[in-house]
Amino acid sequence: MFQHCVFVCMLVPSFAWRLRSFPGEMNLTPMEIPDQPQQVEDMYRSWWTAFGTEADQFSWNTDNHDKNYQNFHDNLAYIVKSNSRRPYKLGMGPFTHLSNEEFSRGGAFCHGKFSADERPDFKGRSTFLLADANRSALDAEEGPWEIDWVANGKVSAVKNQGSCASCWAFAIAGVLESRIALASGELSDLSTAEILDCAEPVVKQRGVGMLLHFAFDHIIKTGVAHRNADYTGSCEVGQLGNVLANYRAIEPESEASLKTAVAKGPVSSAIQADQPDMQFYVSGVITGAFCQVDLNHAVVVVGYGEDGLYEYWKIKNSWGTKWGEEGYARLCRNCNRNDWSGQCGLTLQASYPMITSQVYRSPLVFAAPADAPQTLAG
């Protein structure tokens, strides 16, 4: 039997909750705090049935049901209170059994790996800079009003990184897969395991800073990556060794620059994502000042658009399909957050890979002759 605690009743004492379904999953978005312990127990059991497998992948204490149950109750109160005053919705997901401290120090994050204060070194890089005076004009003139690369079939399936602090590898693989698909018409499934095994030692050696950029630098030199099923544990240049020629670092603190880049294809970036509103996010456009620029998580920006009152960025996460909107989230765009750093710091370390011209063939050529020119395309 679970350990009970005193429950605070809402003004309306009846227990009510709304069932909202995405394809293939169940998600309970509570509207009120239940007034009976048994009702919360029932909700906890329903949550465990729906999300227990994902919870096991992300945390180490899923067997401690007394602690998880207490966290669940506390989180339920936070979710209900937040949903009464947020334009987006929070609800039950893979992390509802964790306190925010447990969530933040868990393996879903790369704490200390990114630095919001460090800016890209554009020397020697093929840069993508826009002058301040041209931001508004370019934002209005370049690119479609909205774009969704998921709907366009250029984004691979959402993955689940589990408790391994590997968000950066999933972001690198995701943006490479999309950019290769745009170049070749073939959507591949790159090996995050190879990126972790082969690029992580270099990333660790270079220390805190621009983690995604460090990984791109390494891949340019050594190549990446076998398809997921083909990775054998070797870090030698494999089938995709000649795909990445360079990368473009997008001008920090410029949502106009980011929009122009995303109009041409998905972009990798870093955000701060360890707050409760990210932990329990279910749907809608994330707004507000709850997240700052303590960058600790990598994502892929896969589109942008408008939803009612808010313009938004669509991001692909690596927390499985039972988090958020089937594994995706929408962050407020052009909301003047964090001194132009964007919602949760999205604009500070955005970049995308530049695919070699040899990929622009059909079918996709995985290995060019040794004397093939490494010209840039895209």
From TrEMBL:
Residues of the Cathepsin propeptide inhibitor domain: 48-103
Domain Peptidase C1A papain C-terminal: 143-354
Signal peptide: 1-16
PANTHER family: CYSTEINE PROTEASE FAMILY C1-RELATED (PTHR12411)
UniProt cross-references to Gene3D superfamilies, sorted A to Z: Cysteine proteinases
Key words of the record: Signal, Zymogen
Organism placement in taxonomy: Eukaryota, Sar, Alveolata, Dinophyceae, Noctilucales
Transmembrane stretches, start-end: none
UniProt record, GO biological process: proteolysis
Family: Belongs to the peptidase C1 family.
Protein name, as recorded: Uncharacterized protein
UniProt cross-references to SMART domains, sorted A to Z: Inhibitor_I29, Pept_C1
Gene Ontology MF annotations: cysteine-type peptidase activity
Domain of life according to the entry: Eukaryota
